[in-house]
Design goal:
Blueprint (H helix, E strand, L loop, with lengths): L3 H16 L5 H27 L9 H22 L5 H10 L8
Helix pairs in contact: 1-2
Length: about 100
């Protein structure tokens, strides 16, 4: 659940972007050259803090292979559910549980 704090924090960079008079493409490009990097870093920090996004993951080859297998199995399950003839309740239950952590199943 995203907090009210998140929305108020997110409004700051949004207002920074909208408050500048972008009356032409060139004026926007000038603004972006001056403020774009810091604006982007601020937005990334907000996403890390409130949404747990934007982290620099350092996966090794084994981790990447495991993630690819996980993705392939998920695709197989989704394709199977799309083309199967089980009742709708069972299908809905499988879809609800499909990507939950094992601890929550």
């Amino acid at each position: 659940m995203v907090s009210i704090d998140f929305y108020s924090t997110l409004l700051r960079p949004w207002h920074e972007l909208l408050s500048f008079n972008h009356d032409s493409e060139q004026s926007f490009l000038d603004w972006w050259r001056t403020y774009g990097e810091s604006w982007t870093l601020d937005l990334k920090q907000i996403m890390k803090t409130y949404l747990n996004l934007g982290h620099e993951w350092q996966f090794d080859i084994e981790d990447k292979e495991l993630l690819e297998k996980y993705y392939a199995v998920g695709q197989l399950l989704i394709n199977g559910l799309t083309n199967c003839s089980i009742n709708s309740q069972a299908k809905s239950r499988i879809e609800e549980l499909l990507f939950l952590p094992i601890a929550e199943i």
